Amino acid sequence: MNPEEPKRLTFRWDLDKTYLDTDFDTLRGLVRIPFESAADKVSAPGVSALIRGLRASAERRGVEVRVRFVSGSPPQIGKVILEKLALDGIEHDGITFKDQWGRIRRGKFRDLREQVGYKLTELLRDRRLEPPGTVEFLFGDDWESDPLIYSLYADIISGAIGREELRRILVALHVAPDLAAIADELTERVDRDDAVRRIFINLARRTPPRGFDPYGPRLVPTYNYLQTAACLFEEGVLDIPAVSAVVSALRDEYHYDSRRLVNSLRDIERRGHLSATGAAALAVTLRDDKVLPEFALGRSRWRDAWLRLRLRIRLRRRAPVAVPRRADYTQLLPALSSAPAGEGLQT
Question: What's the sign of the alpha-carbon dihedral 69, 75, 76, 79?
Fold first, then answer.
């Protein structure tokens, strides 16, 4: 193992609209959800190949890896979700479901739709189980409040947010007092570590990416899982075979053509989340491996050779990309304060 590698990589995933392409858009889709079998559940394009690739890439480098899911769905669908993960060939290290029925029995009807307090406390609880030096990557979507929850979590464990500021934020977000108190207690007990390297938000609602600027460059909005895979490749946690598997899945299973795949790489580079060198080196390698056979850079073979050399250097170095680590809550809070119970917290 490279001495610069973390001792453990933990990948935290949301379920609906991140891993599963769940239909929340229509009443018919909502009614069907509790009655769907594992075979009825549809994975987001390329996500299964990506999750499998993250584990395989880490294991090829001798790095311990952990894949965790946290969901706002009730535990009653747990059996179907486990079956779906097995169908997709995804190994995982646990799923946390929201105990909706328990909240109803305790008369906490307001908590049924609240996500910020629930997910934040679950993330903080689980962080205490991680050994020192664990590096995390978080995966969510733009459907509800994943960008905010993940950013709060990252800033709490890094020490960028203290308890007083967190209390003010949770009050502004209308988080239930009991959940806010638990979050406050966990904030005091969690070890401080700048552990969250990237937050990836799947743009299931096609929210304009610029709307996420206040969260800072640590948060990466992506239109598809090739864009996510390309950024993870540049971070050094996803290797070329794993990226190729994502491309192949998008092309063969979801009918992405070469132009769409190439445009995806160019878009994530244009938005500043992938360096020009990283994008070009990845594109050259995918072309050489016949994964994107139609792609041509229009450069000389000497330029291609230089890019391959840069790629080999990057893969040996495994240096993380340095980004500012704190969201701009002074800009976010005015918009967040008007949202009921922490719902729909995109800007």
Answer: positive
Alpha-carbon torsion angle 326, 332, 337, 343, nearest 10: -80
| Beta strands at 135-141 and 95-96: parallel, antiparallel or unpaired | unpaired
Q: CA 305 to CA 299: how far, in whole Å?
A: 10
Residue range 307-312: mean pLDDT, rounded: 60
Do 58 and 237 contact (CB within 8 A), yes or no? yes
Question: At 124, is the secondary structure helix, strand, or coil?
Answer: helix
Contact criterion met (CB below 8 Å) for 347 and 332: yes
- Inform me whether the pLDDT recorded for 26 exceeds 50: no
Residue the block writes with tokens 């929201």: 98
What predicted TM-score, i.e. pTM, was given to this entire model?
A: 0.87
Query: In this structure, which topology does domain 8-238 adopt according to CATH?
Result: Rossmann fold (3.40.50)
In the prediction, which pLDDT does 279 show?
Answer: 81
DSSP designation for 150: H
What digits encode the pLDDT tens for the residues 51-63?
A: 999 999 999 999 9
pLDDT at 340 over 80: no
3-class DSSP assignment, residue 96:
strand
With beta carbons less than 8 A apart as the criterion, state whether 155 and 171 touch: no
First to last CA, the chain: 41
CA gap 72, 304 in Å, rounded: 46
- For the chain, which residues make up each domain, given as ranges? 8-238
Can you give the pLDDT at residue 336?
62
Q: What are phi and psi of 10, to 5 degrees?
A: -115, 130
Q: In whole angstroms, give the CA distance from residue 61 to residue 84.
A: 28
Tell me how far CA of residue 178 lies from CA of 5, 170, 171, 181, 187, in angstroms. Answer: 39, 11, 12, 5, 14
Query: Per-residue pLDDT averaged across 324-333, rounded?
Result: 80
Q: Does residue 103 carry a pLDDT above 50?
A: no
| Chain segment 291-303, per-residue pLDDT in tens | 876 554 445 555 5
Block residue for tokens 């629930």: 118
Secondary structure (DSSP) of 152-208: HHHHHHHTSS-HHHHHHHHHHTT--HHHHHHHHHHHHHSPP---EEEEEEE-TT---
Q: Give the three-state DSSP class for 135.
A: strand
Nearest Cα to 341, choosing from 149, 104, 161, 124? 149
